Amino acid sequence: MAASELYTKYARVWIPDVEEVWRSAELTKDYRQGDGVLQLQLEDGKELEYKLDPKTNNLPHLRNPDILVGENDLTALSYLHEPAVLHNLKVRFTDSKLIYTYCGIVLVAINPYETLPIYGSDIINAYSGQNMGDMDPHIFAVAEEAYKQMARDERNQSIIVSGESGAGKTVSAKYAMRYFATVSGSASEANVEEKVLASNPIMESIGNAKTTRNDNSSRFGKYIEIGFDKRYHIIGANMRTYLLEKSRVVFQADEERNYHIFYQLCASAHLPEFKALKLGKADNFHYTKQGRNPVIDGIDDAKEMSTTRHAFTLLGVNESYQIGLFRILASILHLGNVEVKDRDSDSSIIPPNNGHLSVFCELMGVTYQDMSHWLCHKKLKTATETYIKPVPKLQAINARDALAKHIYAKLFNWIVHHVNKSLHSSVKQHSFIGVLDIYGFETFEINSFEQFCINYANEKLQQQFNMHVFKLEQEEYMREQIPWTLIDFYDNQPCINLIEAKMGVLDLLDEECKMPKGSDDSWAQKLYNTHLKTCALFEKPRMSNKAFIIQHFADKVEYQCDGFLEKNKDTVNEEQIHVLKGSKFDLLVELFHDEEKATSPTGAAPTTGGRTRLSVKPVKSKAGQSSKEHKKTVGLQFRNSLHLLMETLNATTPHYVRCIKPNDFKLAFTFDPKRAVQQLRACGVLETIRISAAGFPSRWTYQEFFSRYRVLMVQKDVLTDRKMTCKNVLEKLVQDPDKYQFGKTKIFFRAGQVAYLEKLRADKLRAACIRIQKTIRCWLARKKYLRMKHAATTIQRYVRGHQARCLAKFLRRTRAAIFIQKYQRMYVQRTCYKRKQAAALAMQCILRAYMARQLYKALLREHKAIIIQKMVRGWLARQWFKRSLRAIVYLQCCIRRMRAKWELKKLKIEARSVEHFKKLNIGMENKIMQLQRRIDEQNKDNRSLSERLNGLEISHAAESERMRVEVHRLRGAEEDAKNNANKVTTLLEELERLRKDLKNTQKEKKAIEDWAKTYQDEMEKMISELKEQNHLLKNEKNDLNRLIQEQGQQWTDKMQRALKEETQQLENDLNEERSRYQNLLTEHLRLEEKYDDLKEEITLAVNVPKPGHRRTDSTHSSNESECTYNSEFAESEEGSRGGEDVSKAILDMSLFLKLQKRVSELEQEKQSLQNELDRREEQFQRARARDDEEHKKARGAELEYESLKRQELESENKKLKHHLNEMRQSLRGSAEAGSAAPGSPPYTVLLDQLNSSNEELEVRKEEVLILRSQLVSQKEAMQHKATMTEPLPYIEDVQKLTDAKEISQAYMGLKDTNRSPRFTRRPTEVNELVSRLRSPFPDYHKLNEDGELWLVYEGLKETNRLLESQLQAQRRSHDNEVEVLRGELHSVKEDNNRQQQLLAQNLQLPPEARIEASLQHEITRLTNENLELHSDDPKEYKAYRISMLRRMVDLMEQLEKQDKTVRKLKKQLKVFAKKINDLEGGQMDVSPGQTTDEPVHPVNIPRREKDFQGMLEYKKEDELKLVKNLILELKPRGVAVNLIPGLPAYILFMCLRHADYVNDDQKVRSLLTSVINSIKKILKKRGDDFETVSFWLSNTCRFLHCLKQYSGDEQFMKHNSSKQNDHCLSNFDLAEYRQVLSDLAIQIYQQLIKSMENTLQPMIVSGMLEHETIQGVSGVKPTGLRKRTSSIADEGTYTLDSIIRQLNSFHSIMCQHGTDPELIKQVVKQQFYIIGAVTLNNLLLRKDMCSWSKGMQIRYNVSQLEEWLRDKNLMTCGAKETLEPLIQAAQLLQVKKKTDEDAEAICSMCNALSTAQIVKVLNLYTPVNAFEERVSVLFIRTIQTRLRDRKESPQLLMDTKVIYPVTFPFNPSSLALETIQIPGSLNLAFLTRV
Known about the structure:
This protein is of the alpha+beta class and 1890 residues long. 62% of the residues lie in helices and 6% in strands. The longest helix is centred in the middle third of the chain and has 160 residues, at 753-912.
């Protein structure tokens, strides 16, 4: 393909950049051949001219299409080069928060520096069993691939984890081991997987340290082999270690730490067991304070210490050894603080009392003198003599540090040895998976011997990696029959030869170490002389003669020669070692006793290689070889270990994990391109890309290619043969045949061809879109034009009409205006005239009126003046009189006011006093009456005053009359008085005086009237005030009533809400407890199965397996109370007993104790649950318990006495009957012995007497039973005492009865022999609790502090209640009388009918059952009668109770009489027995005639044929045959398919009924035990068969329902017919067995769900996600090297139809077996939950499934499932709700994801999804086509911000192991037992119908 076709305008390329390594740019101009410059535009809009290299003329790398960015596999990219890889990793890491990416066979893992929720058990379960390409990249996917290949190919596997420090190697290796431990489990209960995981904290504490790059950096390499047995369970592990960094023990750089174990010890120094170590803070020791950063943020060293100690304990290192280890570690710290001083220039000395050295010697068990001496001296040996030479201070310090490093290395080796020892298994290892955690390629500013060894190891690993990648590519091409061409790849063998070959770097280093005066400088010169001119990979720095440069596969590295020889020799003073070997400390001696053994503890290759001495071979060295072995250099040891490691890796299938460190600052999800590209180049990822790109990196199956590029084809190109179709299309699309190759199943493309095809596809789709847009836009424009034209015409029409209407309106208004002007002008003129005329007339009128008024005023003024004079004079006289009167009245008022104020003040003082207030409140009604009396008195006074006033008026009238007479007399004498002037004057004065008296009298009368009126007003005012106060009291009363009612309603509502909430909480707790209980049953069943498997394995290990051997089932139930179930029948128990005895001898005690501990834990948990239930029941029963206790004390004596007497009578009757039977047998035997005896008259008489005695006994027995029924009824009646309202008379009656002391004595005598009945249950009383909850007691006393108003109100309320109750009682009494009469008539009729029915039924029953039935009937009748009496009238019930007590006394007397009668019958029986003995002893003469005339023949009385009672009789020995034919050998697909649903359950119950009928306890127990064990056995044998499990689930439930339906409990007998009620169990209460059967049904249900899940699991992902139900909606993207499961339906691929067919199969099977409908609904709900959970989990773990088109497919599939529910009428079972998370996830894939409104809609829509799930889907959302857009990071952050307040679980995946708690609602059967027929195909002919 020409470059001009690709480098066109708008094409995007990558150009180098200094800061970002690579930058993206876009071509602004087409490239033409020969151009030297490219016109580019950067992403920030900047223009750029990119010059091409004139020599190579290489064009920049092309950028992949956007739809390929973010792919799971880097090899799926069309353009494979460094910038594409770097950009893809950056997009996945920063935008999608995905840390794992495939690169061919390599898993690239980027350290997120943040804890992610992607390593839980739910994620492990999701990846378990999945193909590697089907799920998103993950370390678990690599682990699963290794595990599957180990099992499939029978080949050992290796996982090689590499990367630089801080990249996450240790964590990746840890998670890989956790995956193996979780998925595989251990072959035994020894918890090997826990031990493997427990080795991690130990190795981290002694081998990890904080560095500047990593807080938990592994300072050693390790290779862990995890061993598996034949069943691929973990059996053990083995660890090899490499390159321990010993120098860190004595030196740390700034911001770094020593190994974690030292800081953990210092942090735990305060513990009592560490006091002897004399430790302190880490800052106090030289070896731990050099880094000046002893604390790691977020890490608690003390807590880590406890974790380390727990791990030691788990691995079998006891406490004493742990303390010994810590002693050695503490001694190393103290050794570092030993101070060495100069004695002179050539010698040094340690002070004699050095505290730290003393502690060191004390802890290590050595002498102070020897250690201090050899720390400052060394021994020199010559051929003849030995010298002891002092050393200077610097050498002494170096010797001290060398000793510390040597001790730590020995201790490290010892710990590794013991870890391996504890992980070692005695079981033969079948295969293993190795996990290699080793340094990645390292290059620093100063590189020394450690970096050289690390890079040497990486060269070897890179060579192995390159060969493996090349091999895989070659195998792929050969498998597809592609012509193989040699691919040139980098071979680093020359670099390896430079290091390890003869005369290589290591060889010269070892040679220089052997030289007496060898040095680093001389070694460097040898290197220069040997390799500088001969090897191109070796270089010499320009400015140094003590360094060299090696060209490694990743980069050039300059090594400094200083210290190489010293580190390679790793010397330590031999005399110091001898001092330590002579220690009294056993552990220290063990470390140095056998160095070869200590360094290779596993007997395998050397496990530690660090800078310690390692033996390459595991054989024990001879004494003479120890010195030679001791002199091996570190380089030689490491080279040998590395060769052994490479041999191991080459013998396994490797899997590669490359860990990348994204930045050097430990920032979460921050990507530094420079650092990343360095590591990519160093770890071989880019080499993988280069090898892939050199061949055919893009690979498509023919079907995938056809589905993706169908749009590039025309109809005629499409053939039935997909391969030919693809060939024809490719020949047209790609002209160069070298760009692709056709394989057997795939098409191989060169790099860039997929991008070219994607460009063609996008162009074709873009052209189609443009055409569609063109047509749509044309249609839209034309529609718009037509709408606009129509709108314009309409507007014109309306505008013209509007204008015409405006003109007409204008003309009308003009004419109207002229008309209005005419009339308006006329009106104005007329108005003006009228106004002027009116004004003239008004002026005339006013003037004339004025003149007349003036004249009138003058006349009137004169007249008024006269009147005024008269009135003024009279007014002046009256004024004087009024002033005088007012003054007098005012004076009186002042005096009265003063007195009234005094009185008012006294009254106020009294009113303010509390006593007065209390008196007023207490006597309110009395005061009202007093006030009324006062009013009456005032009225009387008023009347008296009125009478007095009338008297005065009468006297005044008389006086007036007298005065009038006197006036007349005076007038008569006037004429006489005229002559006498003096006499007239006197008379005038007298007259004036009389007038004054009259006026005074009138004033007094008026004053009295005013006072009376004032007093009356005051009285009326006081009455009104009292009325108002009364009204206020009434209002307050009404308010109080209303308040009481409101508070009562509030309390009622509150209690109802509380009760409702409590009920809801109890229901939730019940569901939770039910779920926990069922989970415990599941765990118990699992432990049972594991126990059986272990027992079988132990048995097989001891005994040679024989044909037909059967495993012993363990059917121990956690709910057994009295019954112990046997796992096999009798014959199998005896056969397996011997094997069990042998197996017990070799049973692992740890395993047994663990199993026992687990069982005890389960039992304790079950007991805690039971205690919780009991506690809840006790809360409801406490109130009743207190009342019952008093009742039992009062009534217990007589009942127990009666019970004892009844039992004695029954026992005596049984004895008598037994004696009679013996006598009959003896008589019959004697009759057979002599032929003459039966015919004799004495015999006949005696037989008649015996029969009469027997009849008398039967009568007595019936009387006793009747008496017993009456006593039981009395006992039942007494149980209602808790509901009685007046218990005192009853207690008094009982006390009267107990005065005779007879009952009390009987009670004391029988107290110890009282027996508790079996199979009884206690009823749960909740009525009292509810009634107490609903009875509010509000505090009303706050309304009135004095309480007076409350008492008044209570009295009124009580009066109202009394009146209302009397009225209601009268009404009820009238209604009840009528109802009672009707009820009595109806009850009499019912009793008559019932008696007739019972009589008819009892006649058909045998005698024992007849008596029991009559007894039960009598109990029921008396109980009902008792309840009716109590409910009708308590007084009548009281009288009835007293009468019953008296009747009981009579019954007791009858019992005594019966006792006397029984004793009398005993005496008669003894007499009869004596007579019989006499008859048998003597010979009686019988005449022949009598014998001939009266022959005695045996009479056979025919038994009347009875109806079938619904029972099946079987013999005890036929029980095994019954179970075998009906359970073990019954095939649901064969015989059972034609049976009545639940027939086996009916048959078993009918057999159980017969055992109950005959009152055989052992038979009932044995039958139930055998049935339960057999069902368990058949389920264990065929538990994977859904049909079998469904069949026995249905039958178990039916059997359970039968036990309930025929139990005799009223709650289960509501729907029974009368015949079914007759078939109830009569002797045994099987409630506990019902619980056992319920547990069994739960286990079967869980087995059914498991079987169903195993069937559905492989279908779900393929059918719901991968299969395209709507063809053509979604396209297929490139898959890369990891083959993904195709979404195209091939043969054998599951589709949605497969799932629906399977659901139909499940549903039809359950319906055919007669499963309860409610149970079917629960199963369907569980099915849909599994479908939804598995689909959603896979969606969350598969980036390729998160697209818009896949969301449409999922919604369509869900709609099909909903349609299936609708067809089956199962929409109400809750199954649809379980799919809600999946529906919302599909909707989330399809909704818009841009704006804030979209974010709000998503938050409100996805309420069933967690925040983590929503964010995960948005991160994984991937466009399939170029027209879709990715979700921006800003939008995802907006979603996270909005959902921040949600309170939910952080778990990402749904738990697919959740099983909803199952319930078995009671479902009675209408099938009559007597109508059931047993088909002959069941082979149950030995059963007899009864």
